[in-house]
Design brief:
Blueprint lengths: L1 H18 L10 E7 L3 E8 L6 E4 L3 H14 L2 E8 L6 H19 L8 E8 L2 E8 L5 E5 L6 E2 L2 E2 L3 H12 L2 E8 L3 H20 L17
Parallel strand pairs: 3-4, 7-10
Antiparallel strand pairs: 1-2, 2-4, 5-6, 6-10, 8-9
Helix pairs in contact: 2-5, 3-4
């Protein structure tokens, strides 16, 4: 009996850690962005130096799942509350969440001194192999190459995944390239790319002790 109670307590604590809005550790790089338009409202809090905790509600369950994966694989603490005109289309909600997430990354990084700046990751997901590369260069460009045939993955319109990454690149002022090399399942293709993106971004945002306070650019501007 006591063993079952201990197991339930541990499971409840794990669920609580996933769903309760995370509090940033002292000294952590964090940002909160609120964006409201006639089409959407997005409130987002991001801690780069986190533990992979999340609380995500966007109204699109598959997008929730991808953002949860993003937080866990990037070791970011992430809270997202979004509402939008989903009765019209998912486009505004998906794109605006990407923009706000990018803005939060830029705000949390501040001057970008001492960071790696760029990162890449190759992520397997069973039969699928996804690749992501990120450069926090101050230049905006995104390339999304998933070769998805399905119109929907879960409840998410697949054509909008490119809009999400375009929005992120715009908000973060970054280069973002995501690509699926091969794979059968549309679900696995999207999941592999989001995991790879999270891990690539984690590398790009990480501090490089050799750089100290140096800016990772010969232009001295990012």
């Amino acid at each position: 009996m006591s063993g079952n109670r201990t197991a339930r307590t541990a499971a409840n604590q794990a669920a609580k850690e996933r769903t309760v809005a995370p509090r940033a550790p002292r000294g952590a790089r964090t940002a909160r962005i609120d964006r409201e338009t006639t089409e959407t409202r997005v409130a987002l809090c991001l801690t780069l130096d986190g533990r992979g905790r999340y609380s995500v509600r966007t109204g699109i369950r598959f997008l929730d799942h991808m953002l949860e994966l993003f937080a866990r694989h990037g070791a970011f603490d992430l809270t997202v509350e979004a509402t939008g005109d989903l009765d019209v289309d998912q486009h505004h909600t998906v794109e605006d969440i990407g923009i706000v997430l990018g803005e939060a990354v830029a705000a949390a990084l501040g001057s970008k001194r001492g960071i790696n700046r760029a990162g890449y990751f190759v992520m397997p997901m069973d039969e699928t192999l996804g690749v992501a590369a990120v450069d926090l260069s101050g230049r905006v460009h995104a390339v999304t190459d998933l070769k998805l045939r399905a119109r929907l993955v879960g409840d998410l319109q697949t054509e909008l995944i490119a809009d999400f990454f375009d929005g992120f690149a715009q908000g973060a002022r970054a280069n973002v390239h995501v690509k699926v090399l091969y794979g059968r399942s549309s679900h696995h293709r999207v999941e592999a790319v989001f995991k790879a993106f999270a891990r690539a971004l984690r590398v790009a945002c990480s501090r490089d002790r050799q750089l100290g306070r140096m800016l990772p650019s010969t232009k001295e501007l990012l």
